[in-house]
Specification:
3 domains, Rossmann fold, HTH_LacI (chains A, B), homodimer, Peripla_BP_I (chains A, B), DNA-binding, alpha/beta, Lambda_DNA-bd_dom_sf (chains A, B), 349 residues, DNA-binding (chains A, B)
DNA sequence: CGCCCTTGTCAAAACGTTTCAAATTTCGGA
DNA sequence: TCCGAAATTTGAAACGTTTTGACAAGGGCG
């Protein structure tokens, strides 16, 4: 493998000049630069990352630490993110180091990875309010970027979708169809996106003059079983008290809702409308539902390029506060939503 | 961060001596070694990996390159392996670099990772016969280890379960229960484990004097939908031609088989016995089946420690040919298997 | 006293790059 | 012809480690 010295020897130049020529420094003669470029190509020169790292202190790698959870495998978003990020990063010539965190102390894994001086920054997902990982990284002024945010006003680099808007849009659709009793099967209560969606759910419901019942709100993992259990509880309430529409924070939840409706012989969309947010493979999954599921959607993959860009900017020295990317979800109206069924004692038939 | 020089200065020693003391070289006074150890602890010394790498040429990292497949997310084993490996490697002070391969050329991703001189070796999964990745890595004498093997007699380091034995055991159980018409819902035909299991399936069937019908053998991804479709085809054959038992190469397949049996009102195990190999979370998933599923089992996680050890040995210079770890699957008899139903025209009843 | 061997230590080189400070060349203008 | 500034190029230091070859001290032996 050719080195800077080799190229220098080939052309009668010092390694220093070769380095500057290849790195685009302005003070090198353009004719010399060309000669260097040609020789580097010819000799198949590849900068030795390790040497670069040693002198610059940068490693060209970023870390991601997964927190082990027993039901992780039921959540396909993580896998998507992993592969999407790895692809996005490698386009930018950055590599991804993976670790899993099985310890009780959530920051221990970060310390360990840092102590080997092998990553320039981190990518975090699923932040919680008062997330100790974020506190640790901020306290040590380490570059990181978060998928999601642990507070609505976050002063670190993050990518997030506009959770309030998608809750607003979903409620607006349902109320405009005449629904007033709307259930909400949400993500885990500790997670910020769930809090944001719930908050706006309440606001939008109030704006439409629809009541919000706490027993029609449930929190939990984005799994089919949680969706099933929640919907079963909501839908087995007496006629007139049960929701005519359910909003879900994920398509897996919606799958559970569909199953519960099926088991209770409640027809979708005639007797129950369902809207979900789809952060997996927008369109692909939702289309396969029977009937096809109305969704707000933004894929995990869409987050990967912005996340990579933000992190690279941060590592390059950009101030953390300004770095953010908020994406609006798209709306896909499919067949799981319809007009609210006529209520008992309703004027129309 | 303290360096060797710092420790040397602290104790009036040269960095060279400090290095030798910490790395256990014999020619250093044991009293000196103790002083060095103490000082290193006190100053919180951590060897700088980058500098180590530059001089030794080793990076302390290994790479894993995932091939993107559209239905990847349905396959939870990969995720298991990723997290398990990462944990196993980090115990051994090795880090895992992840990349995804979206290119047409399967070796391009390996070349790219190598050109950055950042990994010492690779971990491969799901090898195919004549796998170009294996050919490439062997041709360049690069350390790697494979989960599975692309030929029964493989001359590279690999971990594998004894696929022939588990096929033999499963068939033996079923034939001893009186089953003679046994379906086999297998993995993809190109994959070696599937070929191995099929081969032994035929052998064991022949040994029991049971006929093997090609139409009762199906190949495909280890997904529920493939299991469902295959079982539906097998079970909707006319009475007397349809199998009384089905062997599955994965629990996801078994889930599909259960669903098909349910849809066709075929009772398990009264009218149909099901055995599957469970490489996910042995016991945990199979227990949740209704009725609980009889399995041969070895978890993905069990592979991780041996894989890590084999790769580290190989990187340290061990000859590739001898490095192998073959694990026998365990047998869990549950309630999805029972005596073969009496055949029409059978003597009894 | 000279020789060799062992033990413990060290200085220096090496890995390949970046970058600082200095040296050299070039050139326009006086 | 000379000066100073600008344009190029260079040597050397630095990053933190491993490793080679050398060396000093001490001991045993003839």
């Amino acid at each position: 493998m050719a080195t800077l010295k080799d190229i220098g020897a080939e052309l009668g130049l010092s390694p220093a000049t070769v380095s500057r020529a290849l790195n685009g420094f302005p003070e090198v003669n353009s004719e010399t630069r060309e000669r260097v470029r040609e020789a580097a190509d010819r000799l198949g020169y590849r900068p030795n990352r390790v040497a670069q790292r040693l002198v610059t202190g940068r490693s060209g790698m970023v870390g991601m630490i997964l927190r082990m959870r027993p039901d992780m495998r039921e959540d396909p978003t993580l896998f998507d993110m992993l592969t999407g990020l790895s692809a996005a990063l490698s386009l930018r010539d950055v590599d991804l180091v993976l670790a899993v965190d099985q310890e009780t102390d959530p920051v221990a894994a970060y310390e360990r990875m840092l102590s080997r001086s092998l990553v320039d920054g981190f990518i975090l997902a699923a932040p919680e309010p008062d997330d100790p990982r974020i506190a640790y990284l901020q306290a040590h002024d380490l570059p990181f970027v978060v998928h999601g945010r642990h507070a609505f006003q976050a002063d670190y680099p993050f990518y997030d979708i506009d959770n309030r808007k998608l809750a607003r849009d979903s409620v607006a659709l349902l109320t405009s169809l005449g629904h007033r009793r709307i259930g909400f099967v949400n993500g885990e209560a500790e997670l910020t996106y769930a809090q944001d969606r719930l908050r706006e759910f309440r606001v939008a419901m109030a704006a439409a003059g629809a009541p919000v019942e706490d027993s029609l709100i449930s929190h939990g993992r984005l799994t089919e079983s949680h969706g099933y259990a929640s919907a079963l509880a909501m839908l087995s309430r007496p006629e007139g008290l049960r929701p005519t529409a359910i909003l879900c924070s994920g398509t897996m939840l919606a799958k559970g809702v569909y199953r519960a409706a099926h088991d209770l012989a409640i027809a979708i969309p005639q007797a129950l409308s369902v809207v979900a947010h789809d952060d997996i493979w927008p369109g692909l999954e939702a289309d396969r539902f029977d009937p096809p599921l109305t969704t707000t959607a933004k894929s995990m993959r869409a987050a990967c390029d912005p996340l990579a860009d933000l992190l690279i900017q941060r590592i390059a020295g950009a101030a953390p506060a300004g770095l953010r990317h908020i994406e609006e979800a798209d709306f896909f109206l499919r067949e799981s939503t319809g007009p609210a069924p006529p209520r008992e004692g309703d004027a129309r038939r």
